[in-house]
Structure formats: C-alpha cells, structure tokens
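Researcher: Sequence recovery benchmark, item below. Answer with residues only.
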C-alpha cells in the first residue's frame, strides 16, 4: 500500500477483538518508533508494551476507559525531558515533540500491520507513574490500545487545506 493510502486508512479504533497480537507485529511497531526522527537524534523517550491484563486495567480503571484496557496490548510512550534537545533561543524542550513523532510512527506502523490504535492523552499521569513504577526522569505523554479492530470507523471530517495552509 502507498504511504498516502496508509495515512487515509488510519483510524481511531475504540473496539478490539480478543485476538492476540503477535510478538513480531509488536516488534515491528516498536521498531517504527525507534526509527522515528528526533531533535539531534536524542530519542528522549521510552516505550512500554503492556500485555498483562491486570496492568492494563490498573492504567485505565474507569468504566469510561475500559475499552482501552480490553485491547490485548496497550502501548505507553514516555518522554525523558533531561535528554531532549532544548532550543537555545527560548529554552523550549522538544521531548514531547519527539514523543509525538515516534507515536505517529507507531500508529502508522500498526495500521500497516492491520492493527488498530487510538491516541490517548486523557489519563492520570501519577497513576501511570505508580502502576508502571516509572523512574522520576520519565514522564508519561501518550498511550494507545493496540489490537485487531472490531469496528471500521468512518473517516472523520477534516478542515479544508486552505484553512490550514498559508501559501507564500
């Protein structure tokens, strides 16, 4: 499939089959994150692959997020701000940007594998710290369920290109 087809096929999936995800697929998805560009190639992030059902439920204990924990895998992407490139002009730390790039590689690779994902930023960071026993230098930034979709969500509306782009 072409890259543009892949982008168009990616959806936010909120229902997953109970089918397990192969180790090979998870490794390819993780490898896609590893290959993601980052400022000065610092790669200031760490990916947690959570297969254990109890840990998944502990990360997302609320009834409204039970669908996340029901996926066979949850991926949690953390930043390590102390290792990130910082822009000298204004002190902007790029750890979250680097994580976002790696996470986008994850969701596109998962789509290529026939798997579904859904960016999740609505979580309790302290709960994630406690459940994953994160060291102080790691900050949870984003998570996604990973599994075989049990739905085919339609494309969401997008703004027109002219509303988003200024041509100079």
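Model:
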């Amino acid at each position: 499939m072409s890259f543009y087809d892949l982008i168009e096929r990616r959806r936010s999936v909120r229902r997953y089959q109970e089918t397990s995800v192969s180790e090979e697929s998870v490794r390819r998805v993780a490898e896609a994150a590893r290959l993601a560009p980052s400022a000065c190639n610092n790669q200031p992030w760490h990916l947690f692959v959570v297969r254990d059902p109890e840990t998944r439920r502990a990360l997302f204990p609320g009834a409204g997020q039970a669908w996340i924990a029901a996926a066979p895998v949850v991926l949690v992407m953390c930043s390590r701000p102390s290792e990130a490139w910082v822009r000298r002009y204004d002190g902007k730390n790029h750890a979250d940007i680097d994580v976002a790039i790696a996470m986008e590689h994850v969701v596109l690779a998962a789509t290529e594998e026939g798997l579904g994902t859904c960016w999740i930023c609505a979580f309790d960071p302290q709960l994630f710290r406690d459940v994953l026993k994160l060291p102080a230098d790691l900050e949870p930034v984003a998570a996604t369920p990973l599994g075989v979709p049990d739905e085919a969500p339609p494309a969401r509306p997008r703004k027109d290109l002219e509303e988003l782009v200024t041509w100079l």
